[in-house]
Design brief:
Oligomer: single chain
Helix content: over 70%
Largest sheet: none
Number of helices: 9
Radius of gyration: 23 Å
Number of domains: 2
Strand content: under 5%
Shape: globular
Distance between the termini: 79 Å
Number of strands: 0
Length: 201
């Protein structure tokens, strides 16, 4: 905070900092509790605790984080990273709530995993900064890497765990087998099917 002074909108920045820290201290533990089986087996408690966590994220953590991002150490590239992380949290929170309301628990779980993963960036990023500082890495470079690697890495880990990437790869391979291979043989897919039917006859 001392490094950033003087700020153009000091009062707004300090207020956002207080809101952001408070929202993080409330929402992160709630997200951890919501992911436990004990709470997931109690729908009423899970629903109400989830609503409190969602409101805290959407109206506390993300907006205050967006304000703080514009004065982040590391310049515009770091600002973009913080804004991306916040956008993921907001989008996935809304998507997760809508999925839960329509009874799509698989999509709800996937969205909430993304929310938790992005919230964990605050922890993994600072751990990386400590490691970079110990290794003597240039502070400006360290700050950029310590932000973007956790933001993108956390999103990738969730996709790998959920199987989404594997499903998309399988789908791509299947489409390739159906479309590209016949074209490589000089046949359109429908023509290939007709040829196969004639051979079968």
């Amino acid at each position: 905070m001392l490094e950033k002074m003087p700020l153009r909108f000091e009062h707004l920045w300090l207020t956002s900092l207080r809101v952001h820290v408070t929202a993080a201290l409330l929402s992160l533990p709630m997200c951890i509790v919501l992911m436990t089986r004990i709470i997931q087996r109690r729908p009423k408690i899970h629903r109400w605790l989830g609503r409190v966590a969602g409101l805290t994220l959407l109206f506390g953590l993300v907006p205050s984080g967006a304000v703080l991002a514009f004065d982040a150490k590391g310049g515009k590239f770091v600002t973009a990273g913080f804004l991306l992380s916040g956008a993921i949290v907001m989008w996935q929170t809304v998507s997760g709530v809508l999925a839960a309301r329509r009874g799509d628990l698989r999509t709800h779980r996937h969205a909430m995993q993304h929310v938790f993963a992005q919230m964990s960036v605050a922890v993994t990023s600072r751990a990386m900064l400590i490691g970079f500082d110990f290794a003597g890495v240039d502070p400006d470079l360290a700050y950029v890497v310590a932000l973007w690697v956790p933001v993108l890495g956390s999103a990738l880990v969730v996709e790998l765990i959920s199987g989404s990437i594997g499903d998309r790869i399988s789908s791509f391979i299947e489409r390739t087998r159906r479309e590209i291979v016949p074209l490589a043989l000089g046949l359109r897919p429908r023509a290939l099917v007709r040829s196969a039917n004639r051979i079968g006859r």
